Amino acid sequence: MNILKLIEEAFEAKKYSYAPYSDFHVGAALLTAEGEIYRGCNIENAAYSPTNCAERTAFFKAVSEGAREFAAIAIVGDKGEYLAPCGVCRQVMAEFCDAERFQIILARSKEDYKIYTLKELLPEGFGAASLVGKV
Ligand code: THU
Questions:
Q1: Radius of gyration from C-alpha coordinates of the chain
Q2: CA 51 to ligand 1: nearest atom
């Protein structure tokens, strides 16, 4: 996996962020198991709750085009922080990703990033296996 390329793509995605209410701009780049990259940005709404996070934009773009297996996601904010995904986005990741293998890259720059597995950020998560009593 080319981590630096994925971070670069996340910064590109952030350029399209639509965040007139929070002024908090986020970009994400999602890498599929086949090596394709889907970009996403946050998209806000005057009614607030329809707002979509950058991570989910990337996932929904990818899933809507047939992708189902994912290797990693890079996420960047614009306040110089390590931007960890919100709980709703972690849950969406859990739907499609192997929690022990899927990598979440929180990048402040191409030189400064931290990597977590989904399992680390969403331990004991609820998922399809929970519905049939397999956990
Ligand atoms: N946001 C994301 O895009 N990803 C996250 O993981 C956290 C929050 C967005 C949603 C909203 O547009 C803005 O950041 C402030 O919450």
A1: 14
A2: 12
CA–CA distance, 85 with 103 (Å, rounded to integer): 12
Q: Residue 101 in contact with residue 115, Cβ under 8 Å?
A: no
Tell me the CA–centroid distance for residue 59 and ligand 1, in Å: 14
User: Hey, how many other C-beta atoms are within 10 angstroms of the C-beta on 135?
Assistant: 11
Contact (CB, 8 A) for 35 and 4: no
- State the residue for tokens 């965040």: 19
Q: What is the pLDDT of residues 20-67, one digit of tens each?
A: 999 999 999 999 999 999 999 999 999 999 999 999 999 999 999 999
- For 63-77, b/e burial (b = at least 16 CB within 10 A) is beeebeebbbbbbbb
How far, in Å, is the centroid of ligand 1 from the Cα of 1? 26
List the residue whose alpha carbon is closest to atom 14 of ligand 1: 24
Question: Euclidean distance between the first and final Cα of the chain, in Å?
Answer: 31
SS3 20: coil
